[in-house]
User: What shape does this take?
Amino acid sequence: QPQFVESGGGLVQPGGSLRLTCAVSGQPVDYDNIGWFRQAPGKEREGVSCISASGTNANYADSVKGRFTASRDNTKSTAWLQMDNLKPEDTGVYYCNDGLGSWGQGTLVTVST
Assistant: This one.
């Protein structure tokens, strides 16, 4: 199974930006889509974005469309989620996964003044 380690979260003011990193180890995921998910306090985990195996296509939840950009580099076994114009409702723990691996610890994003 692949293992996923997320990093790059932190505290940011509304309107700010963060870049999350998803480092993959173990079984390669070069042929798998990679999804980004988040779980806000008291809410269920939800999908945020999904990037294709080649990295040429990505889908986004309506709530983040136009503000978030997913990318990946299979040669580095790494994916990223660029988050711009962050809003308080983007607060939560962010995870990456290909649907086959176990969930990592996630990285906490807090958008607040």
Residues 10 and 63 are 20 Å apart (CA to CA). The chain has a mean pLDDT of 96. The chain has no helices and ten strands.
